[in-house]
């Protein structure tokens, strides 16, 4: 099962919008993420619907943050992208009448639900600003060691 990278991609975009580009078109974000602008619009729509970004069409338009990164949690972003499955493992159900499978599936479902609840609680305590601050620390340390550089594919830090 391929990994779903929508959340990390949207976190990346939000930090760039806060630190580097203030307003970005779907085409600019698509180049940064190496994807299609239609995919960007679909992902950004969830953030817009929740009030984290605004969009303006036409010349000079684009996406812009409408809240500070300290007001957006990882849980907010997770919900905005549609709450994708967190785990690629889970109950099987090929032979639901099998008592072994019932026992395995029941414990798997219970354990995964507990793990998901813990992860959601943790997501709620981490803001996008926390990630941006970590970026700033890493970038400062990188510059001390290596001088200017350390750019993303978008051409920004």
From TrEMBL:
SUPFAM superfamilies: Winged helix' DNA-binding domain (SSF46785). It comes from the Bacteria. PROSITE patterns: HTH_RRF2_2 (PS51197). InterPro entries: Tscrpt_reg_Rrf2, WH-like_DNA-bd_sf, WH_DNA-bd_sf. This is Rrf2 family transcriptional regulator. It comes from Shinella pollutisoli.
């Amino acid at each position: 099962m391929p990994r779903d990278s929508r959340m990390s991609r949207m976190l990346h975009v939000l930090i760039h919008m806060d630190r580097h580009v203030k307003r970005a078109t779907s085409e600019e974000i698509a180049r940064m993420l190496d994807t299609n602008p239609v995919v960007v619009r679909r992902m950004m729509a969830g953030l817009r619907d929740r009030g984290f970004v605004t969009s303006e069409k036409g010349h000079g338009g684009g996406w812009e943050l409408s809240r500070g990164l300290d007001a957006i949690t990882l849980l907010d972003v997770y919900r905005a992208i549609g709450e994708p499955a967190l785990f690629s493992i889970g109950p099987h159900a090929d032979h639901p009448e099998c008592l072994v499978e019932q026992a395995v599936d029941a414990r798997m479902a219970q354990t995964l639900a507990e793990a998901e609840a813990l992860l959601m609680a943790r997501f709620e305590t981490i803001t996008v600003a926390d990630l941006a601050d970590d970026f700033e620390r890493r970038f400062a340390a990188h510059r001390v060691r290596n001088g200017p550089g350390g750019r993303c594919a978008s051409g920004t830090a």
